[in-house]
Write a structure and sequence with these properties.
118 residues, alpha+beta, four-stranded mixed beta sheet
Length: 118
């Protein structure tokens, strides 16, 4: 009875199910759906975060209606969220759920914009 036994190398933490942060930064856009009455432009908050989901920068921008539409069309649906507000400074920081959706390969194809009128 000569049977050959092959041992399979066990998967260790080095090569199995371990989260490895991505290099670089990613942007998440929080876009107001109403124009600022003083400027007539849409306010946008751009939150930049790193691979460990730490916020590294927050910038506020103002866009015309055409430029804002162009911005929304150019972004994946998980990279922005619309808010019924006039000024992005009144919007809180994005949730961890929002940030994870931006970088997720599985959720990246979701049809989710984050805002719906009921």
């Amino acid at each position: 009875m000569n049977q050959k036994i092959n041992f399979i190398k066990s998967q260790t933490e080095d090569n199995c199910n371990r989260y490895v942060p991505k290099d670089g930064t990613t942007d998440f856009y929080q876009i107001c759906t109403y124009t600022n009455p003083k400027t007539g432009k849409y306010s946008v908050k751009v939150v930049t975060f790193n691979g460990e989901y730490d916020i590294v920068a927050i910038n506020y921008k103002k866009y015309s209606k055409d430029r804002c539409k162009q911005l929304i069309k150019s972004l994946p649906e998980t990279s922005y969220r619309l808010y019924p507000a006039q000024d992005a400074r009144h919007i809180g920081d994005p949730t961890s759920d929002d940030l994870i959706k931006v970088t997720s390969e599985l959720l990246g194809n979701m049809s989710y914009s984050g805002y719906a009128i009921f």
